[in-house]
Automatic annotation (TrEMBL):
InterPro entries: ACAP1/2/3-like, AH/BAR_dom_sf, Ankyrin_rpt, Ankyrin_rpt-contain_sf, ARFGAP/RecO, ArfGAP_dom, ArfGAP_dom_sf, BAR_dom. It comes from Kryptolebias marmoratus (Mangrove killifish). It comes from the Eukaryota. This is Arf-GAP with coiled-coil, ANK repeat and PH domain-containing protein. Pfam families: Ank_2, ArfGap, BAR_3, PH. ANK repeats lie at residues 694-726, 727-759.
Length: 833
């Protein structure tokens, strides 16, 4: 063993010994620093390894879930399960490797540092101390005077004792140094060798594991080659079949619908029919009907339990219906109810009538049911207003929405990468997207982009109109105005995702390509929009309606069709869309069903407020006639119907400062969606407040502009539906005052607070009552009762009543597609004889 410090040399305490000691102490200090660093790095490696193992476990769990989802495919399930097991074994091997690293490096080296280096430091302290004492004794001995014998003896004795102690300490210190130097080599090499053997074991185990897995992988590789060939063949066969079917003549395809009592699935006949609902509005909905197990049933969706129309076909009859406006109708009548249905053609109607008749005959011949009964959990409609199984399907879905949106210029390709045939859209931007770009947009967050499918999601009419008023061409002119100027490359189909993502973030989040307008351009834009608003307000459809001639009462329309009733030879205003019987049934339904539901939960401490709702109904006029209002006297009604309080004429004042918020403000009033989108791109706050005009917001100005689509655009971009102006009036107040029924319906759907009162303590309901606006009164009352029912039922029915939702869907559909039916007053001048 090589001796670092010589024992003989240390007794001499020579300068050579002192230099060696100093060198050794420096090396030991550096060694301690390196060992501490190595231990810390080892701890970091182990922590990172544990994080890697945790992420790897999640990945393996994902493989297992994918295998479970592919349970119907035995090859995929078994292969993925085997792969997951192998990867889990590798995770276990990794865990063992990190445990061994902790034992061999972290623990072992830490022990060496704490024990051996600590002993070295203690020995060094003793050595330094005795060295100082020796130096002091030597100096004192040298300074002892010759003539003072007792001092000489004392100094000599102290020097002798100190030298003896020094020799003992220095020998121990040198021994400690030599042992440390020797042990250093063995401890470090032992630790690292153990760690390397752990790696050797890890890789051997991994090699053995995947050697066992290799035959399966080779087998799958061979199967994959065959699968690729089979897939190509299947694709050719399907394309050929597709081409063959496409060339067929389907003009007489409805004749193929025939009654087959011996069908394998027990369904004698099935197909789509329109069914008239039994509620007050007699709406028609398309349902999938089938004759099975001696019953006539229908489904809205395949997963839904079938709703039984006729329990036993032996007890019913079927007949043609020629006394209604719709064509190809027939009726199935049972002892308890009847069901009106409509086929798509006369041939289909005859086929269904014949099928029902044959089923009746077969049922009598068989004298009973041969199959199991259907699940009776879904019952037939009771004929009341509460037809829970018949929600309205006014909204567009699938190909209808797709065709309308893709017909807009520029929408046939993805707005961001140009991929043809996009199937997704951003509803707050008004653009179409491919599936990759839609995923990137969704990752931006809904405050930047709200993504919806053009084929899978349901589209409300106002949202569809919003999409049709914007489009890729309009939005790209705003968000890519400076792209070519800056030399930015627009992504192409097939580009890497990270490049497309970077471009989309630069475009919509950073708005890097938006051209910022100069102060003069912004001023010209605002002035132009204000003038455009004045032109709109001067047209007949934006003028405040003139008051009708004095009429003591309003007569209800004969059919509740929304046409105005005659009064003294003139038509003052149209009546409510609801006839009196429908309204009585409607409010009775809400009141009765609310009481029934509240009574069921009395034991739970839920208070019944239906009486309060009913009292509120008594204080508002009936929806159709002033005769009902006069009978409900708590609120005095005028002898003539006053016109709605018109809004003040919008006057453009020269503002103190022109801003994107002011542009959004006037563009909302002028119904200019491209200018609104441009203002938002320039940084306009959607809830911007015009302090110079009673603190009105863009949403309130959209109400004054009379456009439902403009309101929808602002709401989709996070406009506050309850933000009030200086008079304490929110958008719902203004829409009610102006008689904009469609906007009232939209705001109520979006959570507008109808209980909010302005500075005159007027709520939207009180304003609608004073103006005698039957439809808005009806909507507000229904919304109020639906809210009370929802609060009382709590978690039992968080979405409220289905009939309420159906009514609001009807109003939404009418406001978007037939808005003239919602005009509060007829233009009196055009009705003069």
């Amino acid at each position: 063993m090589k001796i670092t410090v010589d024992f003989e040399e240390c007794l001499k305490d020579s300068p050579r010994f002192r230099a060696t000691i100093e060198e050794v102490e420096g090396e030991v200090g550096e060694l301690e620093s390196k060992l501490d660093k190595m231990v810390k790095l080892c701890i970091g490696m182990i922590d990172a390894g544990k994080a890697y193992n945790a992420a790897n476990k999640q990945f393996v769990n994902g493989i297992r879930e994918l295998a479970q989802q592919s349970a119907k495919d035995e090859v995929i399930e078994s292969s993925l399960t085997k792969f997951a097991e192998s990867l889990q074994e590798m995770i276990n091997y990794h865990t063992i490797l990190f445990d061994q690293a902790q034992r061999s490096i972290k623990t072992q080296l830490q022990t060496f540092v704490k024990d051996d280096l600590r002993k070295f430091k203690e020995a060094k302290k003793q050595f330094d101390k005795v060295s100082e004492e020796k130096e002091t004794a030597l100096i004192k001995n040298a300074q002892a005077p010759r003539n003072k014998q007792h001092e000489v003896e004392e100094a000599t004795n102290i020097l002798t004792a100190t030298r003896k102690c020094f020799r003992h300490i220095v020998l121990d210190y040198v021994l400690q140094i030599n042992v440390l130097q020797s042990k250093k080599r063995s401890e470090i090499l032992k630790s690292m060798l153990s760690f390397m053997y752990a790696h050797l074991t890890f890789f051997h185990q991994g090699y053995d594991l995947f050697s066992e897995l290799q035959p399966l992988m080779k087998q799958l590789g061979g199967q994959l080659d065959q699968l690729v060939v089979d897939a190509a063949k299947e694709k050719r066969d399907m394309e050929q079949k597709h081409s063959t079917i496409q060339q067929k003549d389907f003009s007489n395809d409805d004749t193929k619908l025939e009654y087959n009592v011996d069908a394998d699935n027990g369904i004698a006949m099935e197909g789509y029919l329109f069914k008239r609902a039994s509620n007050a509005f007699k709406t028609w909905n398309r349902r999938w009907f089938s004759i099975q197990n001696n019953q006539l049933v229908y489904q809205k969706k395949f997963k839904d339990n079938p709703t039984v129309v006729v329990e036993d076909l032996r007890l019913c009859t079927v007949k043609h219906c020629e006394d209604i406006e719709r064509r190809f109708c027939f009726e199935v009548v049972s002892p308890t109810k009847s069901c009106m249905m409509q086929a798509d053609s006369e041939k289909l109607r005859q086929a269904w009538i014949k099928a029902v008749q044959n089923s009746i005959a077969t049922a009598f011949r068989d004298k009973g049911d041969n199959g199991e009964k259907l699940d009776r959990k879904s019952s037939t409609s009771t004929g009341s207003l509460d037809s829970g199984g018949e929600p309205k399907e006014r909204s567009l879905k699938g190909e209808s929405a797709l065709q309308k949106v893709l017909a807009i210029p520029g929408n046939s390709c993805c707005c961001d990468c140009g991929q043809p045939d996009p199937r997704w859209a951003s509803i707050n931007l008004g653009i179409t997207l491919c599936i990759q770009c839609s995923g990137i947009h969704r990752s931006l967050g809904v405050h930047f982009s709200k993504v919806r499918s053009l084929t899978l999601d349901t589209w409300e009419p106002e949202l569809l109109k919003l999409m049709c008023e914007l489009g890729n061409k309009v939005i790209n002119q705003i968000y890519e105005a400076r792209r070519e100027e800056l030399g930015a490359r627009k992504p192409q189909p097939g580009d890497p995702r990270h490049e497309v993502e970077a471009y989309i973030k630069a475009k919509y989040v950073d708005r890097r390509f938006v051209r910022r307008p100069s102060d003069e351009e912004l001023r010209n834009k605002v002035v132009s929009l204000s003038k455009q608003e004045k032109r709109l307000s001067s047209s007949s459809e934006h003028l405040p309606p003139k008051p009708p001639p004095p009429t003591p009462k309003l007569q209800p329309s004969s059919h509740g069709s929304g046409q105005p009733a005659a009064a003294s030879g003139t038509e003052a205003r149209r009546d409510s869309l609801f006839c009196p019987d429908e309204l009585d049934s409607l409010f009775s339904y809400f009141d009765t069903s609310y009481k029934l539901r509240s009574m069921k939960r009395e034991d739970s401490g839920i208070q019944n407020s239906a009486d309060g709702s009913r009292e509120m109904l008594a204080t508002t006029p009936s929806s159709n006639s002033l005769a009902d209002a006069e009978a409900a006297e708590p609120l005095p009604m005028p002898a003539t119907l006053p016109p709605p309080s018109p809004c003040k004429e919008v006057v453009f004042y020269e503002p103190k400062e022109y801003s994107p918020g002011l542009q959004l403000y006037w563009a909302s009033c002028a119904h200019s969606l491209p200018d609104m989108a441009e203002a938002l791109a320039h940084g306009a706050e959607v809830n911007w407040v015009n302090t110079e005009e009673d603190k009105k917001t863009p949403l309130i100005m959209a109400v004054h502009g009379g456009s439902l689509v403009t309101c929808e655009f602002l709401l989709q971009n996070a406009a506050n539906v309850n933000q009030q102006d200086a008079q304490g009036r929110g958008p719902l107040h203004h829409a009610t005052t102006l008689g904009h029924t469609g906007q009232v319906c939209l705001f109520l759907k979006r959570g507008a607070n109808q209980n909010a009162a302005d500075i005159d303590e007027k709520t939207p309901l009180s304003i609608a009552v004073e103006a005698a606006n039957a439809d808005i009164v009806t909507l507000l009352r229904l919304a109020k009762m639906n809210e009370e029912m929802r609060e009382a039922e709590g978690p039992y029915n968080p979405s409220g009543d289905e009939t309420y939702q159906d009514i609001f869907q009807d109003f939404t559909h009418m406001a978007s597609n037939d808005p003239e039916k919602l005009n509060r007053y007829q233009q009196y001048d055009s009705q003069k004889p």
